[in-house]
């Protein structure tokens, strides 16, 4: 199911019972002003197969990195809607999961793709922190952890940081 912005409690229960996957397309939802999906609410109700999508028919980019950023913003917007009640917005690790293993799970391919477990197909981006011509898109410091580096790429990086792309173990030439 795509979007699921206006699902009723009964519909959410059906999604959970039947283990239906949901594809969250936040860029499209904002572009069309169709609403904000409460991903945390779905997770709380037991809907566990949630992926990110780009839905360029309603949005303006096919970038999964943008979808991840928009998912975080959407989750924070849902916080505003909850009138100060306790609500934990999504985290970077959660949206990274939605963009990788979440997508694989929704497609029924989680035994084949979605992470770097031995035996799965190698789908990956090789990231370099320096943009073309040696101009950094973002700064890294000696004490930065791997988590810091991923976070900086997530918030500040773009396609200039992608050195190589691999799909099913094969390097894709762009």
TrEMBL record:
<dbReference type="InterPro" id="IPR051607">
    <property type="entry name" value="Metallo-dep_hydrolases"/>
</dbReference>
<dbReference type="GO" id="GO:0008270">
    <property type="term" value="F:zinc ion binding"/>
</dbReference>
<protein>
    <submittedName>
        <fullName>Guanine deaminase</fullName>
    </submittedName>
</protein>
<dbReference type="GO" id="GO:0008892">
    <property type="term" value="F:guanine deaminase activity"/>
</dbReference>
<dbReference type="GO" id="GO:0005829">
    <property type="term" value="C:cytosol"/>
</dbReference>
<dbReference type="InterPro" id="IPR006680">
    <property type="entry name" value="Amidohydro-rel"/>
</dbReference>
<feature type="domain" description="Amidohydrolase-related">
    <location>
        <begin position="1"/>
        <end position="170"/>
    </location>
</feature>
<dbReference type="GO" id="GO:0046098">
    <property type="term" value="P:guanine metabolic process"/>
</dbReference>
<keyword id="KW-0479">Metal-binding</keyword>
<dbReference type="InterPro" id="IPR032466">
    <property type="entry name" value="Metal_Hydrolase"/>
</dbReference>
<keyword id="KW-0862">Zinc</keyword>
<keyword id="KW-0378">Hydrolase</keyword>
<dbReference type="Pfam" id="PF01979">
    <property type="entry name" value="Amidohydro_1"/>
</dbReference>
């Amino acid at each position: 199911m795509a979007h699921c912005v206006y699902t009723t409690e009964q519909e959410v229960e059906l999604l959970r019972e039947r283990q239906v996957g949901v594809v969250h397309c936040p860029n499209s939802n904002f572009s069309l002003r169709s609403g904000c999906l409460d991903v945390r609410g779905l997770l709380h109700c037991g809907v566990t197969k949630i992926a990110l999508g780009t839905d360029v028919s309603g949005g303006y980019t096919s970038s999964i990195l943008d979808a991840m950023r928009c998912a975080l913003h959407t989750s924070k917007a849902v916080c505003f809607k909850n009138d100060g009640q306790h609500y934990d917005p999504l985290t970077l690790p959660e949206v990274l999961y939605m963009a990788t293993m979440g997508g694989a799970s929704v497609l029924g391919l989680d035994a084949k793709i979605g992470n770097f477990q031995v035996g799965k197909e190698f789908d990956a981006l090789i990231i370099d922190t320096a943009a073309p011509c040696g101009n950094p898109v973002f700064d890294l410091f000696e004490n930065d952890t791997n988590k810091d580096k991923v976070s900086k790429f997530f918030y500040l990086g773009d396609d200039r940081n992608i050195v190589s792309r691999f799909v099913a173990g094969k390097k894709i030439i762009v």
